[in-house]
């Protein structure tokens, strides 16, 4: 297999999914005289968050979704943020609400996630959606794990019975990923910072999902030959330019790409792997929210697109 065939291109998969979703936003406009709509709230000016929000807004616009950004100062009070969300919850022209994480330390993320109306919770983090996911029946599945599953279901003909190992147990990635893989009949192991001898687990993985936030932590020694590796990590590192004149920012994943590429069957790159799929899945969830909020039959069509979640 050539190197190029070993790389799972998230940009191509994202385009494929968006091509399926875009006609449904147009159909929504035709039926309800407005586009599906997404409001993203960003608190403060975290540079990484700014890039993510900009990409979300742009992708929405390109795919027939009305998008709006609410930018709040980093010292905004928790109460003021809650007021903004309450207004959006009541606005019937707003289908999806997303509060970009992380939030400043003085604001409780848990409290904010709980305030968002579950039927507009396009991130899928509200306890109602999160709980339903673990019951195997959620309206909104968190975008990053959903995007990973989309690529896995296209890459692996029969995912049933595969050994899937996840490194990282966060609520936004590791845990929902485990639930989705379990629903797909994989045997799932979750590892974390207290796991003893992680390699012992990862070396048994047919599918290895990594979401730790430690640059290039996973090298070839963690990999079972022939495994499919999904690198969720996004780490921004500063390196000197060759002339040492300035600092350059590079983005790397949690996996040592070049080394692991030699052992794995397939691997997602960073950037250009999971990132674009996360945004495409946000568009999917927003259009779904729009139809749900209109109690429209088209929801069945969207669920058809989601054949890969079962
Ligand atoms: P969190 O910090 O919330 O969670 C990290 C997880 O990694 C924790 O469960 C932690 O364990 C575990 N961990 C930390 N150190 C180790 C270690 N040495 N060995 C094993 N496990 C360890 O991070 P997120 O889940 O939010 O994000 C993880 C990465 O994914 C980040 O780089 C983030 O930027 C990226 N990300 C990318 C997205 C995308 O669209 N591509 C979307 C979301 C995140 P413990 O629970 O024990 O502390």
Architecture overview:
- It is a single chain.
- Helix content is 43%, strand content 16%.
- The protein has 310 residues and is an alpha/beta fold.
- It has a five-stranded parallel sheet with strand order 5-4-6-7-10, with helices on both faces. The chain has a three-stranded parallel sheet with strand order 2-1-3, with helices on both faces.
- Helix 2 packs parallel to helix 11 and helix 7 (143-155) crosses helix 11 (274-293).
- The longest helix has 23 residues, at 10-32.
- The structure holds NADPH dihydro-nicotinamide-adenine-dinucleotide phosphate.
- NADPH dihydro-nicotinamide-adenine-dinucleotide phosphate is lined by residues 144, 167-170, 172-174, 191-194, 198, 211-214, 232-235, 274-275, 278.
The N- to C-terminal Cα distance equals 30 Å
* Fraction of residues in helix: 40-55%
- Spatial ordering of strands, largest sheet: 5-4-6-7-10
- Bound small-molecule species: NADPH dihydro-nicotinamide-adenine-dinucleotide phosphate
Largest sheet: 5 strands, parallel
Order of helices and strands: HHEHEHEHHHEHEHEEEEHEHH
Outline, from the CA principal axes? globular
The count of strands amounts to 10
The overall average pLDDT, rounded, is 94
Question: How many helix segments?
Answer: 12
Radius of gyration in whole Å, from Cα?
A: 20 Å
Low-confidence stretches: none
Q: Which structural class do you get from the secondary structure elements?
A: alpha/beta
